[in-house]
């Protein structure tokens, strides 16, 4: 029987999956838009939204929590630029745009960007 387990496995072990989500979210914060598979984009969206909400607070505690996942450069950008940008917004900081299939293996590709 199928259980309601949260999240996608992405064909990786827990540590690899966590590292992948951190790295892709960090790249999203730096560049504002990245291209990846649809499944990864949907997972990144959730993680990125929670991180941006934390960055909006701009407290010592929020900076320390963000520094567990991201480099100091990214934390600074999130708190100084991204957080204030979304101060009035209640959520929905990311947008996923489907871009068709990859030629080599047919994987569904999508762009994820900050709104």
Provide structural commentary:
The chain has 115 residues and is an alpha+beta fold. It has a single domain, classed as 50s Ribosomal Protein L17, Chain: A. It is built from four helices and three strands; from the N terminus they run H-E-H-H-H-E-E. It has a three-stranded antiparallel sheet. The radius of gyration is 15 Å and the shape is globular.
Give the structure's gist in a few sentences.
This protein has helices at residues 14-31, 38-57, 60-67, 72-85; strands at 33-37, 94-101, 108-114.
Question: How do the strands line up in the largest sheet?
Answer: 1-3-2
Q: What is the number of beta strands?
A: 3
CATH class descriptor name: Alpha Beta
> Count of helices?
4
At CATH level 2, the architecture is: Alpha-Beta Complex
Largest sheet: 3 strands, antiparallel
Question: On the 0-100 scale, what is the average pLDDT?
Answer: 94
CATH superfamily: Ribosomal protein L17
Report the β-strand fraction as a percent range: 15-25%
What is the number of independent domains? 1
Structural class: alpha+beta
Task: Spell out the key features of this protein.
115 residues, alpha+beta, 3-stranded antiparallel beta sheet, 50s Ribosomal Protein L17, Chain: A
Task: Detail the topology: elements first, then pairings.
Blueprint: H1 14-31, E1 33-37, H2 38-57, H3 60-67, H4 72-85, E2 94-101, E3 108-114
Helix pairs in contact: 1-2, 2-3, 2-4
């Amino acid at each position: 029987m199928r259980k309601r387990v949260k999240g996608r496995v992405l064909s990786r072990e827990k540590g690899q999956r966590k590292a992948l989500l951190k790295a892709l979210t960090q790249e999203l914060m730096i560049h504002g838009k990245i291209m990846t598979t649809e499944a990864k984009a949907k997972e990144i969206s959730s993680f990125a939204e929670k991180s941006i909400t934390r960055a909006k607070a701009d407290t010592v505690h929020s900076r320390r929590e963000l520094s567990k996942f991201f480099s100091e450069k990214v934390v600074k950008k999130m708190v100084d630029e991204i957080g204030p940008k979304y101060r009035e917004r209640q959520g929905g900081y990311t947008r996923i745009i489907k871009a068709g299939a990859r030629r080599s293996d047919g994987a569904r590709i999508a762009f994820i960007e900050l709104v």
